[in-house]
Fold:
Amino acid sequence: MVQLLVDTSTITATDAIMLLSLAGDLRICQVVDPNKTVRMELPLQYWSENPFL
Structure:
């Protein structure tokens, strides 16, 4: 997620880490399977434009 923020905006890696620590939401997706899965969510209001379109 840090690399995605750095690649799609003008912020540095340090700023991206600080933004994710304040506004990001880390969630556990599955715990039953031996392969654990987590996801990081960041509201669209923190993106200057939608990088996924």
